[in-house]
Design brief:
The complex is a heterotrimer of chains A (262), B (270) and C (268). Helices cover 75% and strands 1% of the residues of chain B. Chain B is mostly helical and 270 residues long. Chain B has a two-stranded antiparallel sheet. In chain B, α3 packs antiparallel against α6. The longest helix of chain B is centred in the last third of the chain and has 32 residues. Chain B is globular, with a radius of gyration of 20 Å. Classes of the chains: A mainly alpha (262), B mainly alpha (270), C alpha/beta (268). Chains B and C meet through α1 and α2 of B and α1 of C.
Chain lengths: 262, 270, 268
């Protein structure tokens, strides 16, 4: 079974790759755009720190790490779940129907229908800059902190997966929701800054409702040795429960699916 | 008589797209939610930065908050656009329908855009009003009537400027089916360099000077400076000159692209 | 007597369709609440299909043909009623069932637009777990029959509608299904191409003894292919039997006049 899915994934990846290389100008634009956006934001952060020493108690390098971690999680999540962004188009154009009648897990098919190689290209320099920034926080840098960071990043990606699945379920359920995934993306952008800058209410929302704080801030706080044991418990709870919930919604959505009439 | 029926035509187009916009109610509401979230993040950021000293880079709290909220409203006015559909119209052969009808495509897309902007402007104002009330933000209003006049004028020019830029990018659809990528790049660049999320004068001077050679600071930053009455008369005059220069230049370029594009246009089947 | 391949028993499907009030008030109130009205697409349809039969569903647009087919493919859950295809309940979407049937939807394609059909074939090979040898054999066979051998490495967007349809048919049959659900397979095709597609379907059915359900609002499709016809309108089955019987049941005159009479007859 694993072999079957692996082979399907490979074929999908090959096909996506062929399409992307066939559209070099558009792909190039998007790639450059992503990198430019990150560079601009780092410039913005650097400019801010010309006028101040700290933001919510964090130094410039630490704030940069929050931002870069946000990008790492975001880009890797997109790398794996890119197909979900196209689900509304699939539903509207009726391609989704084919997914439903073919003997493959629908979610798998939806998620991997497009594999964006641009994300692979983007993630490398971002990881590079992240590593560099980490070296600029020597008092926190250690093998343990790196391990903590990685584990919590993976945990964050599981939550991201859950969110993507929930969004896909919503798109399948009501075929009108144009922007659900972008809601998630925009709420995610709240994670670009350390969540401590937000009011208590917002922070609670970012922990318990859309757990951006757990996804993005926790890995950095873990790296900086600022997490309590209860935070670890919370992180695990978040990822398992959100995944379970999301998969349940997805099942319900496919059951209710009304295909677009011809 | 001609003029009136022409106006009615474009008014109707405006009306249709307004209706269409409202019909997509879920997506409309979510779009507004989006902009609220973005507003929240920047409000929180600046609050945190201002909390330390009460001022930041020569902006006191009322000024900075006015900038954040004001630029949010301006964003919805200047950047809300459906010009991204131009390339689609061209590449999918829909342009043929418009070329055959007694409708000027340029004016048509402009009406379509205005309709989009109105909806967004209206709701953006409501969002900002709610946010100000919830967070107790003191808006800094212009004290002189002249400031209002200059502000509104600069806005009108900014809207035109952005529209022209996007129209030109849309025209690239005549030559390539891939104008999506470059468009994305352009919009990204514009959003950063227009001062759409933060006042450009916090950036290093060298960068500010470089940006001033482009039309982008005049989309949001310049009107906001007028609004905050931080721009001396000389700067206002110079700003208008630059806006005007870009509008003329881009209009010429737009027409050039359009004429050559339509000539080349071969309707693609579906 | 072998058991029928397709069994449908009082199958019904009702859709909830949003209703938009006109004008500004309607648009604004639409932001807050929506009115829905029920549309009965399929009303208590019952029939059986034996192995190797080629059955046609004929009816105007909106008659319920496509909806019925979608329920039999597992795309839609019925509102009430039962059905089994090859012994499986379609909307349970069991893998073993999905490997044994195929659905072709006219004017839609599962082929990837920007790439040659061959890539989509390879994808289906993996999805349906078709062994290498049989895959190549089937591709050769189908592409020869459909005369598309030279078109397999041309990007799908560059193919004409007829060529696309042929490639689509080939792609749908790679896993050698025993049940074919064809929804308006000749729609949009020119007369020559329609004939070619019909010939192919007939040929395929003879070779493979496949059970085929075909919907169309094109009389020729039905007349040339189907010995058995089901007339459907307003979600109801009006007639199920041989084409020649329609005239007897619905009055004299030509076949098309009889059909018209059938469709215009008041609903019960």
């Amino acid at each position: 079974m694993v072999k079957k899915y692996f082979r399907i994934w490979v074929q999908l990846a090959v096909m996506s790759f062929k399409i992307q290389t066939g559209h070099v100008v558009a792909s190039g634009g998007y790639l450059l755009g992503k990198l430019v956006r990150i560079a601009f934001f780092l410039l913005f952060l650097a400019s801010i720190f010309k006028h101040t020493q700290a933001l919510a108690g964090y130094r410039m390098e630490e704030v940069a790490l929050f931002f870069l971690t946000f990008n790492v999680i975001d880009i890797i999540a997109q790398l794996f779940f890119r197909g979900i962004y196209g689900i509304r188009a699939l539903v509207r154009e009726g391609d989704f129907d084919y997914f439903l009648i073919q003997p493959v897990q629908i979610l798998f098919r939806v998620a991997f229908n497009t594999v964006d190689f641009l994300d692979v290209v983007t993630v490398i320099p971002v990881l590079g800059v992240t590593a560099y920034v980490m070296t600029r926080i020597p008092h926190a840098l250690s093998l343990t902190s790196l391990l903590i960071y990685s584990v919590l990043c993976i945990n964050g990606m599981l939550i991201a997966l859950a969110i993507h699945i929930a969004v896909a379920a919503l798109a399948v359920w009501t075929q009108e929701l144009d922007n659900t995934i972008w809601i998630y993306r925009d709420v995610m952008t709240l994670g670009r800054f350390p969540v401590d800058i937000y009011s208590t209410v917002v922070r609670q929302v970012l922990i318990y409702v859309v757990p951006v704080a757990v996804m993005v801030s926790f890995p950095v706080k873990g790296f900086l040795h600022q997490l309590k044991p209860s935070d670890w418990l919370l992180a695990c709870l978040m990822s398992t429960s959100s995944l379970a919930l999301a998969l349940y919604f997805w099942k319900e959505a496919t059951r209710h699916y009304t295909s677009v009439s011809s | 008589m001609e003029g009136i029926s022409s106006f009615r035509k474009y008014w109707f187009i405006y009306w249709l797209y307004w209706q269409e916009g409202l019909q997509q109610r879920a997506s409309f509401l979510m779009e507004r939610f989006r902009s609220l979230v973005v507003l929240l993040s920047f409000y929180s950021l600046w609050s945190a930065l201002l909390a330390q000293k009460g001022s930041f880079a020569n902006y006191d709290r009322p000024q900075m908050m006015t900038y954040v909220l004001g630029s949010s409203i301006l964003r919805s006015l200047v950047f809300a656009s459906r010009t991204s559909e131009i390339a689609g119209d061209i590449n999918h052969g829909r342009l043929s329908a418009y070329l055959l009808k007694p409708v000027n495509y340029f004016t048509y897309t402009f009406s379509r855009d205005l309709s989009e902007k109105s909806i967004n402007l209206f709701s953006s104002i409501i969002e900002v009003a709610i946010l100000s009330w919830v967070f107790g933000i003191h808006f800094q209003w212009p004290t002189h009537v002249s400031s209002w006049c200059f502000f509104l004028a600069s806005l009108a020019f900014a809207v035109t400027l952005y529209f022209l830029l996007c129209f030109i990018v849309g025209c690239w659809g005549f030559w390539t089916a891939e104008s999506g990528g470059p468009r994305f790049l352009l919009e990204l660049f514009l959003e950063f360099s227009a001062g759409a999320f933060f006042p450009l004068d916090i950036l290093p001077l060298s960068i500010q000077t470089a940006l001033k050679t482009l039309p982008s600071p005049y989309l949001i930053f310049f009107p906001m400076r007028i609004f905050l009455e931080r721009a001396p008369m000389t700067e206002i005059v110079q700003g208008f000159r630059v806006q005007f220069f870009w509008i003329i230049g881009l209009a010429v370029l737009a027409r050039w692209f359009w004429v050559r594009g339509v000539d080349m246009y071969g309707a693609e089947g579906s | 007597m072998t058991s029928p391949v397709i069994v449908v028993d009082h199958l019904s499907k009702t859709f909830q369709v949003a209703h938009k009030a006109p004008g500004l008030r309607g648009a604004l109130s639409g932001l807050f609440s929506r009115e829905y009205r029920a549309v009965e697409a399929v009303r208590a349809i019952s029939f059986e299909v034996q192995e190797g039969e080629l059955v046609g569903f004929l009816g105007p647009n909106g008659a319920g043909k496509t909806t019925t087919l979608k329920m039999l493919s597992g795309l839609l859950h019925p509102t009430s009623g039962q059905a089994t295809v090859l012994g499986h309940v379609p909307w349970k979407r069991e893998r073993s069932f999905q490997k044994r049937f195929t659905m072709v939807m006219g004017q839609r394609t599962q082929l990837w637009w920007d790439l040659p059909a061959w890539d989509s074939f390879l994808l289906n090979k993996e999805i349906f777990e078709i062994p290498e040898a049989s895959f190549h054999r089937t591709v050769d066979e189908l592409s020869t029959l459909l005369e598309i051998q030279d078109l397999l490495d041309v990007p799908v967007k560059k193919l004409s509608l007829g060529q696309r349809m042929k490639a689509e048919l080939a792609c749908s049959l790679l896993h050698e299904p025993s049940v074919l659900l064809l929804d308006e397979p000749t729609i949009g095709l020119d007369v020559v191409m329609q004939k070619k597609v019909r010939e192919f379907i007939l040929d395929y059915q003879k070779r493979r003894k496949a059970t085929i359900l075909l919907t169309s609002h094109n009389m020729e499709d039905i007349a040339e292919l189907c010995s058995r016809v089901m007339l459907i309108n307003h979600g109801q089955l009006l007639f199920d039997g041989a084409l020649t019987e329609i005239q007897k049941q619905f009055g004299q005159g030509s076949l098309s006049e009889a059909m018209r009479a059938a469709f215009l007859a008041p609903r019960s």
